[in-house]
Amino acid sequence: MPHSTSKASKSGVTLPPLRPGPHQRRMDVVAVVATFGGLLFGYDTGVLNGALEPMKQDLALNSVTEGLVVSSLLIGAAIGSLVVGRMSDSLGRKKTLTILATIFLVGTLGTVFAPTLGIMIPARLVLGFAVGGASVAVPVYLSELAPTERRGTLGGRNELAIVVGQMLAFVFNAVIAGLWGHHEGVWRYMLAVCALPAIALFLGMLRMPETPRWLISKGRHDEALAVLMQVRTKDRARAEMAEVEHLAEEEVEAQTGGITDLAIPWVRRIMLAAVIIAVAQQFTGINSVMYYGTELLQIAGFSDNAAPIANVSLGVMAVIGGSICLFVLIDRIPRRKIIITGLVGTTLCHGLIVLASALLPDGKFRASTILALVALLVLVIQITLNVPVWVCLSELFPLRMRGFGMGVSVLVLWLANALVAQSFPTLVSIGGITGTYGTFFVLGAIFSFLTWKTLPNTSGRSLEELEESFMQGDFR
Amino acid sequence: MTIIVAVPDSIEGARALSAAATEAQQLGTDLVVCNLGLRPLDTASVDTDVKLTVVDRKGKDDRDPVDAVLDEITHRGAIRLVIGVRRRTPVGKAILGSVSQRLLLRSPVPVLAVKVDE
């Protein structure tokens, strides 16, 4: 397929076809190492799911401080996503990822050995900085090294690495809880496992190349060519230099727009649509399941021993959903359609969870019904709202608005995530499963409507066509 | 000699552009058009005997339109700046700031401000 034909890229540069060879292996190694960033991201966000219960007793957490332990990571991530973009522009992609791996390790050790909440929260903030940073730096690193033909799937693969990381965290937590559940401070063992992928990322990144795009943006053309020679055939590397220079130029252009441009109605309108889908995605409560799944299942009626194991099935569902989306659906269904279907579908799931929790008598049947419905919720979200929202965001903004627009969207997304994570334990303690998912149901209905009103369809239309119709006030 | 016009993506932008074209014609100067919007600017409405150069904003340094215009004034040694102004709500100004107000206060050359009929 993409290997057989040569391809004229957007810059009009015709590139020789990709051919197998030793450079191909090198590229694969680069992709695997960088994906450790996504894996770590997932592991660190998912690891509390299972570790939280024993930690609550040890550190004497109430529902507010419990929320704080979870959401402090997300606040750190919001800061990280803001700072690391700049850091990777000035220091370089490779150095930034190496530094992030070190911060991952430092943050992990902080959480593992935290004697009190006073150390735990700052350690989670530090860890969050690395998580948010990785969410920005890893996709950039991968896309700048990957050949045009493989660029699209690589970003999605990073999303998949994140859910695989979360699933692995659930699996390891279940195993550790099964083996050493009676040990005091068993949650420390669970958190300690995060150190392994951090070390792997650090050691791996030391041997990885800097990206050609960054080198060119610093005027280091010879080094850029040398890197391309490592990961492409010789003829292709020379041909790609022109393309990379064009992309570096485009990158500069993407940084043009800023807050004053929001005075223009059509720009404001796109920004609004972007912020709405970012918030809508988080208000589905996906991450409350990924962070608090074990606790949720215990409240639903699972025993302390069974809940961590049942929780693994939620992680598996996320991976299945993510794969279906990425390998089957993503380019077959228009973005607007898949996102709105997903929002309506998740809102229905919320409704069913409310009914099951309110109407069924306590017992095994209620517990397993709720598990099945939450698993369905996770599946629907991963198929329709995770990768499609990211892709849609990146397509929504016209070039000169992209840097600012994506920056704002990602920040809003992390803050919405933090808000849900912070309030979830309090919601559950006040309203139980019925009240909590009743809240998600109402929010879901509101955001489905807002999305339906504001979101233009971005797929199957070139960026120029989109820009044209936005400016004429047509947002469909 | 050159005069500069700041043209945002709005009615006052179009108004400023036509006023600046008349001004350039009267003074017998070139006209440099600073396109403050994010899309390409259509200058078809301007009189053709005025020599006209369109400058787009590009990159982080031009993120603030005021900086982009002030740079252009110094860079081209312009003798006058033309802008369009419009009544704004205090809330709108508080949130987004006023580009016209900052240009009026910071421009090193005389500013011609034209109003949009309301």
Automatic annotation (TrEMBL), chain A:
Membrane spanning stretches: 29-48, 68-85, 97-121, 127-148, 160-180, 186-206, 270-292, 312-331, 338-358, 370-391, 403-421, 427-452
Record's keyword terms, sorted: Membrane, Transmembrane, Transmembrane helix, Transport
The keyword Transferase is assigned to this record: no
Example of a GO MF term: transmembrane transporter activity
SUPFAM superfamilies to which the protein is assigned, alphabetical: MFS general substrate transporter (SSF103473)
InterPro entries noted in UniProt: MFS_dom, MFS_sugar_transport-like, MFS_trans_sf, Myo-inositol_Transporter, Sugar/inositol_transpt, Sugar_transporter_CS
Domain Major facilitator superfamily (MFS) profile: from-to ranges: 30-456
Pfam families: Sugar_tr
Mode of membrane association: Multi-pass membrane protein
Residue numbers spanned by region Disordered: 1-21
GO annotation, cellular component aspect: plasma membrane
Gene3D superfamilies (UniProt xref): MFS general substrate transporter like domains (1.20.1250.20)
Biased composition (Polar residues): 1-12
NCBIfam families linked to this entry: SP
Family statement drawn from the similarity comment of this UniProt entry: Belongs to the major facilitator superfamily. Sugar transporter (TC 2.A.1.1) family.
Name assigned to this protein: MFS transporter
Protein species of origin: Streptomyces swartbergensis
From TrEMBL, chain B:
Cross-referenced CDD domains: USP-like
InterPro entries named among the record's database cross-references: Rossmann-like_a/b/a_fold, UspA
Domain UspA: 61-115
Entry protein name: Universal stress protein
